Amino acid sequence: MTFEQLEDLFYTLQIRANPSGFHGFLCGRLSCGAVDMRQLVEASSQWLAMTDEQAEAAENSLEDFYEASLSNLEDISFLFQPLLPDDELPLAERLVAIGDWCSNYISGLGDGMGKEFEVSLDGKEALQDLAAIGQISVDFDADDDDGERDYAELVEYIRIAVQLVFSDLHPELETEAEPTIH
Question: What pTM did the predictor assign?
Answer without folding.
Answer: 0.86
